[in-house]
Design goal:
Number of helices of chain B: 11
Oligomer: heterodimer
Shape of chain A: elongated
Order of helices and strands of chain A: HHEEHEEEEHEEHHH
Structural class of chain A: alpha+beta
Strand content of chain B: under 5%
Helix content of chain A: 25-40%
Radius of gyration of chain A: 22 Å
Strand order of the largest sheet of chain B: 1-2
Distance between the termini of chain A: 46 Å
Number of domains of chain B: 1
Structural class of chain B: mainly alpha
Helix content of chain B: 55-70%
Radius of gyration of chain B: 19 Å
Order of helices and strands of chain B: HHHHHHHHHEEHH
Strand content of chain A: 15-25%
Strand order of the largest sheet of chain A: 2-1-3-4-5-6
Largest sheet of chain B: 2 strands, antiparallel
Number of strands of chain B: 2
Number of strands of chain A: 8
Largest sheet of chain A: 6 strands, antiparallel
Shape of chain B: globular
Largest interface: A-B, 29 and 30 residues
């Protein structure tokens, strides 16, 4: 057959594309379960890291997670538990932070540590090049940060990417997110020499200004809806009220949500 | 002598016919992944693997590919290989794949790969093409690692993430050069390497 003829070219390209397509789908299908498990494990590792639990030795992340995270639930911006069949672990924080505060589903993970019960909440925001996210663990007084974990998709290495380093994350330990009068004030990320006197602050990363500002905005936006929940903890009122006064915002299409989550946390 | 000749595709790209500093290919990723040594090294391994495999596949197909669509065929083969590498890393080595997420995809656009497929694999036998792929991947990697070494050392004071500039230097006023982290410094570092390389290989001078 003439190898320069149109017919040959069309048949050749068709066969090539079909072969490549089949190979890729087989690879994808074969590796998918393992990939999903890796992603779930990675999220579990991040949640545990915020409570300063680092896996060691031969312990698997899933075992470590189930031995520490004893309870998890969803609250609304009034601090009430939402009676939902949705798994808090599956909530796509990236979508939630875009909603108005009173419509958000706010996941909380209760973590038992050597230093008592901690409450872990997710945060999500934007850095310079892409999304940044993290988890914050709070003491049972609902005010003091016990530990922080931040991650990013593609911040500049050596600059904005430093937010995931202990040098940055560890600064958050022991900071209070409420003022003495009980107002939510979050934690500021500031330049050396610009430290505010009246609220908690951490030092920004020099050269990573936009990412540092992103962290500050992320904390403000993601933690603010939790104020009521934390104030309840602070006041020592146990979270027993399971009644829901308002209709629960429905969470459409779990499948889309999962795909979204995967795409922002590769 | 005969053995040496058959190994030429492997040895030449390391210096005399280096893809980055002589053929000036793959400069884009040399800027992107060389701020730290570790991604530079993993990028080297990934590019070498993809390049060697793509070279072999194209070399096997070289007598059947219609000339009018040969670039598209090469692209499809490379893209498929890169996607497979990405998927395998995600399943078996999730940590590394997370660190390299964007860079793996960038392999498709690496000019070295298309350049070698078009210039070598389309007209040579599979074994020679395989050696050529390994050689060019390593030749690319050598430059990447040299550039990353200087950029990480001078820019962050670390190598493979470990602090190597001692603390007393900082106490006596030494500062990391933040500019080394920015992409333009990779170009200047590559230029310095070319300068040294040319002055040692007079026959490459124009």
């Amino acid at each position: 057959m003439n190898r320069q003829s149109n017919l040959y070219t069309i048949i050749y390209s068709t066969i090539l594309v079909i072969v490549v397509g089949v190979v890729l789908s087989v690879v994808y299908q074969a590796l998918r379960p393992q990939q999903l498990e890796n992603m779930a494990n990675d999220t579990k590792r991040q949640i545990l890291a915020s409570a300063r639990i680092i896996p060691s030795g031969d312990q698997t992340i899933s075992d470590l997670y189930s031995s520490h995270i004893k309870d998890s639930y969803i609250v609304d911006s009034k601090g009430q538990k939402i009676d939902s069949d949705k798994d808090p672990f599956e909530i796509n924080v990236a979508l939630e932070v875009k909603k108005p505060a009173d419509e958000r589903l706010l996941p909380v993970f209760e973590c038992t540590t050597d230093n008592g019960l901690k409450y872990i909440v997710p945060v999500y925001g934007a850095g310079l090049w892409g999304p940044i996210w993290g988890y914050l663990a709070f003491d049972s007084n609902g005010d003091t940060i016990y530990g922080a974990y931040f991650a990013h998709q593609g911040e500049t290495p050596g600059l904005g990417a430093e937010i995931e380093k202990p040098q940055f994350c560890d600064q958050f330990e022991g900071k209070d997110i409420f003022s003495k009068s009980g107002e939510f004030i979050s934690v500021s990320v500031v330049k050396v020499g610009k430290e505010p006197a009246d609220k908690a602050w951490v030092h920004a990363i020099s050269g990573g200004t936009i990412t540092s500002q992103g962290v500050e905005k992320m904390l403000l936006n993601s933690l603010e809806p939790y104020s009521a929940f934390f104030l309840n903890l602070k006041a020592g009122t146990p979270e027993t009220d399971m009644t829901v006064s308002e209709p629960v915002p429905t969470f459409e299409s779990t499948e889309t949500a999962e795909v979204e989550l995967n795409s922002v946390e590769p | 002598m005969n053995v040496n000749k058959s190994l030429l595709p492997l040895i030449n790209p390391l210096s005399k016919d280096n893809p980055v500093i002589v053929q000036v290919l793959g400069i884009c990723s040399a800027l992107a992944v060389t701020a730290k040594l570790e991604p530079a090294l993993v990028m080297t391994i990934s590019v070498t693997a993809v390049l060697a495999l793509a070279n072999v596949i194209i070399s096997l197909l070289r007598n059947t590919i219609p000339t009018s669509i040969r670039i598209i065929v090469q692209l499809v083969v490379v893209a498929a290989l890169v996607v497979i590498v990405d998927q395998v890393l995600k399943a078996w080595n999730y940590e590394v794949s997370k660190a390299l997420s964007v860079f793996i995809g960038l392999i498709i656009t690496n000019c070295i790969i298309m350049g070698r497929l078009e210039a070598f694999a389309m007209s040579n036998r599979p074994w020679a093409s395989f050696l050529d792929g390994i050689g060019n991947g390593l030749g690319y990697g050598i430059i990447l690692v040299i550039v990353a070494f200087f950029r990480e050392l001078l820019g962050s004071g670390t190598l493979f993430g470990c602090q190597v500039i001692p603390q007393w230097c900082y106490e006596h006023g030494y500062q990391n050069n933040g500019m080394m982290i920015l992409p333009p410094m990779a170009l200047i570092t590559v230029a310095c390497i070319i300068w040294v390389h040319r002055s040692r290989n007079k026959d490459l001078q124009e």
